[in-house]
Recover the amino acids of this structure.
């Protein structure tokens, strides 16, 4: 299998070959998970030449908020972070869909778990990425026995490296039980989100998702779907979701940068709706892909287009 990694990374202030973007095994972030990251998609436009970066300023803003929670001191504004990401996309000049992973981390080789005085760095790398979950069929999900980490332990709204141990516990459990994805409840016993994605359900034509105070990541795809739905006349509710509502919902789907839109066919072995992709999910999925592929310019302000430069592609 060829490596999905693209050739260049941003590391310690400059663009270097990905193979040179390395840190020591003793680094604070490696030992304690004291990092935060973003996951951003660049979609190949229908013109075959342009990479459409989805909601780049929003991802930059969220990463800087995660960095703030980590007390990271970085010489980047939202604008300069976005510009740095664009420069790396230009340099890598991907020929297909790409995933961009900016990573803020505590960079000192230091033994004490703390946030202050242990150095802060930014690295960015990219890979080619198609579908992360199989979106052509409905997924099997389970309600995990692992609980989503509460805000006053490790805040879910910070996209922290260490939190993904929790996500990994839940994902493994799902896969070992023959499912594709886990649904985590929070410490109050209410629905939080998937292992690395947000959750929506549809009941009686109303699109429902959990509030940002339910120990979830404040998903940018989630926010986009709420907007797409309300602009399309689909009623939306943002409120706590009970576990039992999952089992009687007409439609359930996950969304996020990685999963994009993934319809759920069953939860804990109980079929959702008739087990196929429901009409609301299908409508939102179509609106979403028309936007990211540049087939509709209604949400053009969500897209940062980066044209492939012939010279960059050849060098
Ligand atoms: N929740 C978690 C825990 C995630 O890792 C992700 C993926 N970033 C999401 C939700 C979805 O967020 P977004 O739409 O911003 O990618």
């Amino acid at each position: 299998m060829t490596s999905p990694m693209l050739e260049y990374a941003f590391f310690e202030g400059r663009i270097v070959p990905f193979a040179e973007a390395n840190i020591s095994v003793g680094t604070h972030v490696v030992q304690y998970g004291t990092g935060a990251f973003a996951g951003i998609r660049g979609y190949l436009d229908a013109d075959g030449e342009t990479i459409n970066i989805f909601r780049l300023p929003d991802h930059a803003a969220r990463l800087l908020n995660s960095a703030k929670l980590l007390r990271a001191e970085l010489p980047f504004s939202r604008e300069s972070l976005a510009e740095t990401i664009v420069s790396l996309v230009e340099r890598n000049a991907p020929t297909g869909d790409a995933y961009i992973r900016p990573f803020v981390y505590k960079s000192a080789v230091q033994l004490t778990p703390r946030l202050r005085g242990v150095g802060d760095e930014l690295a960015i790398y990219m890979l080619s990425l198609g579908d992360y979950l199989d979106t052509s069929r409905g997924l099997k999900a389970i309600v995990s026995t692992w609980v989503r980490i509460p805000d006053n332990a490790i805040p879910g709204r910070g996209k922290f490296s260490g939190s993904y141990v929790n996500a990994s516990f839940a994902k493994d459990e799902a896969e070992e039980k023959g499912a594709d994805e886990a649904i985590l409840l929070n410490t109050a016993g209410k629905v939080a989100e998937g292992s690395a994605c947000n959750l929506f359900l549809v009941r009686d034509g109303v699109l429902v998702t959990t509030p940002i105070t339910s120990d979830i990541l404040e998903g940018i795809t989630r926010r986009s779907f709420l907007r797409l739905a309300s602009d399309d006349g689909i009623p939306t509710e943002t409120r706590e979701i009970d576990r039992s509502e999952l089992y009687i919902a007409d439609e359930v789907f996950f969304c996020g940068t990685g999963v994009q839109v993934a319809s759920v066919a069953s939860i804990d072995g109980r079929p959702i709706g008739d087990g196929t992709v429901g009409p609301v999910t299908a409508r939102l999925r179509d609106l979403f892909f028309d936007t990211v592929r540049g087939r509709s310019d209604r949400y053009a302000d969500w897209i940062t287009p980066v044209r492939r430069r012939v010279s960059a592609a050849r060098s």
Q: What stands out?
A: The chain has two domains: 8-130+304-313, 139-277. The chain has a mean pLDDT of 95. The longest helix spans residues 78-92.
